[in-house]
Amino acid sequence: MSRATLTRLFAASGAAALLLTGCTSGVDASAGAGADTTRLRVAYGWYPTCFDYAQSNPFALFGRQVLDTLLSEDPETGEFEPYLATSWKSLDGGRAYEFTIRDGVTFSNGEKLTARVVADNFETLWKLAEQGVSPTPGAYLRNYDRAEALDTRTVRVSFKKPNAGFLQANSEGQFGIIAPESLAKSPKERCAEGTIGSGPFVLDEAVQDERVEYVKREGYDWAPDAYGRDGAASLERVTIQIVPEESLRAAGVVSGEYDLAYSMTETGLAQAKGQNGVKTVLASDRSVVNTFVVNTADPVLADPAVRQAIQRGINREELVSAFYGKGVEPATDVVSPGHPSYKDRGELLGHDPEHSASVLDRAGWVKGKDGIRAKDGRQLRLSLAFSAGDIGSAESGWEYVKNGLADIGVAIDLKRVSDAEQADLRKSGKWQLAVYQGASRGDADGIAAFYSTRLSTWSGQAPRPKADGPLAEQAATVDPEKRRSLVDRAVTEIVTQAYGIPLFDSAQVLLARSAVRDLTFPVNAWEPILYRVTKK
Predict the structure, then answer these.
(1) How far is CA 469 from the centre of its chain?
(2) What is the per-residue DSSP string for 145-207?
(3) What is the DSSP annotation of 412-475?
(4) What's the longest Cα–Cα distance across the chain?
(5) How many CB atoms lie within 10 A of CB 238?
(6) Using CA atoms, how far apart are residues 84 and 72, in angstroms rounded to an integer?
(7) pLDDT number for residue 4
(8) Could you identify which of 49, 73, 117, 256 might form a hypothetical disulfide with 32, taking C-beta atoms 3.0 to 4.6 angstroms apart as the criterion?
(9) pLDDT below 50 — which residues of the chain?
(10) CA–CA separation, 380 vs 510, rounded Å?
(11) Which keywords describe this protein according to UniProt (predicted)?
């Protein structure tokens, strides 16, 4: 399909092995999606607002299929592997990186991959970040200086200060390398038309709020070893059907109309329970877990006893079992178990209301006749802001948390806000507690971006020297062991002082026909690699 046709259509409108559960011994339906082994039909709930992955992190499924990255990450070892770059090295203590670019790679429009193209990609990403268009890649490029092609196959990326997380960033789809034709487009045009990559699929057709079609890229032959496949993709075509209703997504998989359905809850899983030829897929994430953000500059929350009491006053096990379904687990650290910085700190997050009460008693917070504690004439009453866009946005779950904290003398006022209001609140600094939906990044810089008061987008927080210092130092430390030690020191301080209240970790839950094989998620649960998927 031509770019002009695509434009008219738009105008009209982390890899770990998967845990497969609920498999049956049945075979696929003989009609519908299951009958065509060369086409994958995916039921997805939302039409993307933007087809440029660098600008649209929530819609990773769409952007990732056309893109390749400089590096790949082995899901078993965490080691980096060649992809578009055949080799690389760190220079000057992490202030510069050189990549040797693979020869013979072309983009789907025929343009060639060169060191100059890669350098232009980084220069363009940084410009978009400065414009506020691509904030996540901008965070990955912190302290960026320049990118230059040293020759046709060698590119050097330089930073004003060491950037230890830069190599890992080059395994994520938002750093996918795009063709010069796409680099020349405006951000708005890239959102509308998509980007041209060197990946195994090509965007073929998009119909607003209906479907998005991808076709196999013939001649593709540079996938990384971790993908376990050579040459072109197995599938000839991928159709992503937009199906907002979960019940219809689930029913479609059961009937064989769809091969795969995203974003399942207990409702959809119940529809598929016991059905022949259907399996449940749990795609674990590597992210900062869903958390209560804590404004430590607030006069009440500045008291560590209050924060620590809240942290131990929440029964995460009951919260998860009562209000969430498959794929949601109580937090045992600030990050998911699949994150390379994970360490089991569950003993510091376990429910212990007696401990909470004791901590508050020692700090001078005394229960009044109304059951609410007070100190120096100030009640222990806090506002918790949450938006409809948050995971777990059902108010009943937060009511449960509110009631549990009331038992230890902490009063919570629930404040439901829109996403826009939540963003304004975040910038204002005039907030106390707020729900944060975990974000994926398989690197310690993901922790720093959230918990460092120098980097966090949640304004107004008081400095945390014993956490801020190690988080800043690790970002500039390329030695893996030293970096790991700094991160551990920072996170231990974060959890001990309850600078955030980790709640639960959530995996992406999908339904799939049993015929779907080799579905993998190298980076995060929203970024599947469909290149190696087969239908048997």
Answers:
(1) 25
(2) EEEEESSSSEEEEEESS--TTHHHHTTSGGG--B-HHHHTS-HHHHHHH---BSSSEEEEEEE
(3) EEEEEE-HHHHHHHHHH---SEEEE---B-SSHHHHHHHH-TTT-SSTTPPP-HHHHHHHHHHH
(4) 76
(5) 23
(6) 9
(7) 36
(8) 256
(9) 1-31, 392-393
(10) 42
(11) Signal
Instruction: Give the position of tokens 């231990």.
Output: 492
Torsion of CA 416, 420, 421, 422, to 10 degrees: 70
Distances (CA, A) of 35 to 31, 211, 236, 256, 332: 5, 20, 14, 9, 43
At residue 465, the pLDDT reads: 94
307 three-class SS: helix
Q: What is the pLDDT at residue 71? A: 96
Angstrom distance (rounded) from CA 316 to CA 502: 9
CA-to-CA distance for 145 and 106, rounded, in angstroms?
A: 27
Which two three-digit tokens encode residue 87?
Answer: 């080799």
Are 26 and 514 contacting, i.e. CB atoms less than 8 angstroms apart? Answer: yes
What are the φ/ψ torsions at residue 40 (nearest 5 degrees)?
-105, 125
Task: Please tell me the distance from the alpha carbon of residue 378 to that of residue 433, in angstroms, as a whole number.
Answer: 17
CA-nearest of 329, 334, 282, 307 to 438 is 334
- Global pTM value: 0.84
Q: 294, 301 in Cβ contact below 8 A?
A: yes
